[in-house]
Structure formats: structure tokens, C-alpha cells
């Protein structure tokens, strides 16, 4: 277990702030939902976005890669850089950066501007996600911390599975630019909610960059981060290109794809809450089940996904399994480093988003070089690797070893 001397101790004058409560928790969940929706938005829009900006689907997938890379870098760097700044204005400022990035994306006259916009989205996302994960304990009484933390994390999970179909539907109704405008407006609304509902949140402790890096070397933390890397990379190697996959394998039209992604999304929400309860009892058990189902389902897609009905069933099972990844891996890491919540969350966000970037990049290379069907086999192989690390690696003490 990492030693607490890697981090500066909490100042004695910092106490639980007055105010907050469940409305504040809801606002923070809204923030996590918005940042992850912003990140995922291009997935359901790759085809029209690429056509209008004059790039291939594999190149258009770099919009996800760049955002993930920026979030991966910004999360572990911003947390120490913020020092003792009050977290309320910091979160509001990051939501403003996110809104600006989405507005710039909506305006983009060419692909270079779109990539610049996605840099802003990545910075806002990495900072918000890293800070939000540890706020529940400061907003509600002790007996409510568990459910409040689950609600904050559910914003991440729900966005991961509903952001794509929502963007696809908005894009079909008003064009892909309208989808980005809509999410920019949502970010501004969440900013106002955070400003109105959060109490003052002075930093509890100063997180040092060296301590964050040393925490990553602790065996239980390192195992959890390895599981995150393999499962998330595998998922996004395949799922980033789900629209062209569905078009090629099942011949689905755009409206049908929107419906199929909605099926995936609803199943993913259910998977999030089911896996959250299972992970509270045994993070390893929950992640073994997730890895097994995820690998098998993705591998079966090109083999039996020729019919729309069949592919709908496979997408529902895919959603059920992947919907639990974020909450189960977060549970693993917080159990592995309970004395360093904010640092563990920063590492989690960095690896998670770096894995999104890597998955989108690998999937793009596979799609452009070998065809979109290959991305499914690649995703399944990586998910199987995540299953092996989960089963064999060192787990959190007293949490389903």
C-alpha cells in the first residue's frame, strides 16, 4: 500500500464545508455526465463528420484519440498544479473550457480546427473527472457517502453508454454540428448549477506529482490500472468504429443504428448499477465477469451479427458488460488506495483516457488497413487480456482477492 507521506497532510483548519448535500452531488454527476458525453460525441458522428471535413473514418477517429490523450495528460498534472485552490471555482472554470471546446468544434470549417477544439475538451474533461471523484465525502453525511459516490460515478458510466446514441439522434435531426452546439449549452447549464449548489471546497490536502507517480507503482494500484488499460483500450478499439461496423456487417441504416445504440445505452446503464453493487462486494469478481462477457460478445459480432435482431442482442449484452467497467475499476482503485482518493482518481482518469485514445488509434489503423471487421477481433483480444490480468493480478486487501 502506498504510504501517506507521499502526500502533504490535510491542514487542520480544513473542515467539512457547510451546504452541499444531494443537490450538489447531482450537479457534480451532471458535470461528469457532460464531460464524458463531450468526449464520446464523435463516435456516433464519424461518418458525416468525416465526409464534411474531408477525412477518412479512421482519421476522423483521431478526434477521440486526441481528446483522450489530453485528458490523460491533464488529469495527473492539473491535480498537483491546482494546489490549494477552492475546487468550486476550479470546476466552474473547467466547465467553461469544455463549453468553449464544443462551440469551436461545432464551428470547425476544417479538420485542424476540429482537432484544436478537441484539445480544449480533453483539458476540461481530465480536470473535472479527476476532481469530481473524491467530492462525495465532502458533500453528504458519512452514511450517504457510498450512494453519493455511486451517483457521481454513474454520470461517467451513463454518459459512456448514452452519449453516443444521443449524439447520433441529434446529428440525424439537425446535423453533426448541432450535436456539438447542444453539448456546449449543456456544459453552461451545469456550470451554473455547480456555481449555485456547491459550497466552498478548499483543498483538503496538496497532492504532489511525485506522490501520484509513486502510487502508480503500488502493486494493487498497478494491477487495477492494467485492467483499466486493457478493457478500455479493447472496448474503444471496437466501439469507436461501431457505426461503420454496423453499416458493413448488418447493413443498418442511420435511423436503425441510432436505435441500436440506444439499446446498447439502456443496457449499459443497467450494467453500471448492477456492477456497482457487485463490485462493492468483490471488485475482482465483478471485473472477471465483465471481461469474460465483453471479450466473448465483441468476438461474436462479426460472426453472427448479420441480422439486425441478432446484432441488437449482442449490443445489449455488450452494453451490460461495458457499462460496469468504470464503476468496478474505480471501486478497485479506491479500495487499493483509500488514503489517497484524489491521487488515485487522477491516475484512473489518466489511464482511462489514455486507453480511450490508444483504442481509437489502434482501431483506426486496423479499420483503414484491414477493414472495420478486424477492429472487433482486436477489441476482443484486448478485453481477454484484461480478464487475465484481473484473474491473476494482486487485488485490493479485503475486497475479493
TrEMBL record:
UniProt-listed InterPro entries: MFS, MFS_dom, MFS_Efflux_Transporters, MFS_trans_sf
Signal peptide coordinates: none
SUPFAM superfamilies reported for this sequence: MFS general substrate transporter
Predominant cellular place of this UniProt entry's protein: membrane
Lineage of the organism: Bacteria, Bacillati, Actinomycetota, Actinomycetes, Kitasatosporales
Entry's localization field: Cell membrane
Pfam families listed in its UniProt record: MFS_1
Protein name: Arabinose efflux permease
Molecular function per GO: transmembrane transporter activity
Amino acid at each position: 500500500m502506498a504510504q501517506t507521506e507521499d502526500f502533504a497532510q490535510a491542514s487542520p483548519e480544513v473542515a467539512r464545508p457547510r451546504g452541499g448535500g444531494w443537490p450538489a452531488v447531482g450537479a457534480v454527476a451532471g458535470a461528469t455526465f457532460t464531460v464524458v458525453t463531450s468526449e464520446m460525441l464523435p463516435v456516433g458522428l464519424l461518418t458525416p463528420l468525416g465526409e464534411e471535413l474531408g477525412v477518412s473514418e479512421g482519421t476522423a477517429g483521431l478526434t477521440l484519440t486526441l481528446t483522450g490523450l489530453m485528458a490523460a495528460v491533464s488529469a495527473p498534472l492539473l491535480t498537483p498544479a491546482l494546489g490549494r485552490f477552492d475546487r468550486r471555482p476550479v470546476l466552474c472554470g473547467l466547465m467553461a473550457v469544455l463549453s468553449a471546446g464544443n462551440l469551436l468544434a461545432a464551428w470547425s470549417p476544417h479538420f485542424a480546427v476540429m482537432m484544436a477544439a478537441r484539445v480544449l475538451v480533453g483539458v476540461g474533461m481530465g480536470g473535472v473527472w479527476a476532481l469530481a471523484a473524491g467530492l462525495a465525502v465532502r458533500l453528504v453525511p458519512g452514511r450517504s457517502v457510498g450512494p453519493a459516490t455511486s451517483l457521481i460515478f454513474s454520470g461517467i458510466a451513463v454518459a459512456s453508454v448514452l452519449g453516443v446514441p444521443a449524439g447520433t439522434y441529434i446529428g440525424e435531426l439537425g446535423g453533426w454540428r448541432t450535436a456539438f452546439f447542444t453539448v456546449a449549452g449543456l456544459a453552461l447549464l451545469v456550470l451554473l448549477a455547480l456555481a449555485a449548489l456547491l459550497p466552498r471546497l478548499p483543498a483538503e490536502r496538496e497532492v504532489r506529482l511525485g506522490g501520484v507517480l509513486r502510487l502508480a507503482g503500488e502493486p494493487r494500484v498497478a494491477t487495477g490500472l492494467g485492467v483499466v488499460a486493457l478493457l478500455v483500450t479493447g472496448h474503444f478499439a471496437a466501439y469507436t468504429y461501431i457505426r461503420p461496423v454496423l453499416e458493413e456487417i448488418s447493413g443498418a441504416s442511420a435511423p436503425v443504428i441510432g436505435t441500436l445504440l440506444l439499446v446498447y445505452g439502456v443496457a449499459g446503464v443497467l450494467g453500471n448499477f448492477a456492477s456497482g453493487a457487485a463490485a462493492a462486494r468483490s471488485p475482482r469478481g465483478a471485473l472477471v465477469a465483465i471481461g469474460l462477457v465483453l471479450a466473448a460478445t465483441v468476438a461474436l459480432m462479426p460472426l453472427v451479427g448479420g441480422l439486425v435482431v441478432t446484432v441488437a442482442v449482442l449490443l445489449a449484452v455488450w452494453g451490460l458488460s461495458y457499462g460496469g467497467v468504470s464503476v468496478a475499476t474505480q471501486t478497485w482503485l479506491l479500495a487499493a488506495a483509500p488514503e489517497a482518493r484524489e491521487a488515485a482518481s487522477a491516475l484512473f482518469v489518466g489511464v482511462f483516457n489514455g486507453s480511450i485514445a490508444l483504442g481509437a488509434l489502434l482501431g483506426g489503423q486496423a479499420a483503414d488497413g484491414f477493414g472495420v471487421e478486424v477492429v472487433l477481433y482486436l477489441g476482443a483480444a484486448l478485453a481477454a487480456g484484461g480478464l487475465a490480468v484481473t484473474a491473476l493480478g494482486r487485488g485490493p486487501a479485503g475486497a475479493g482477492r
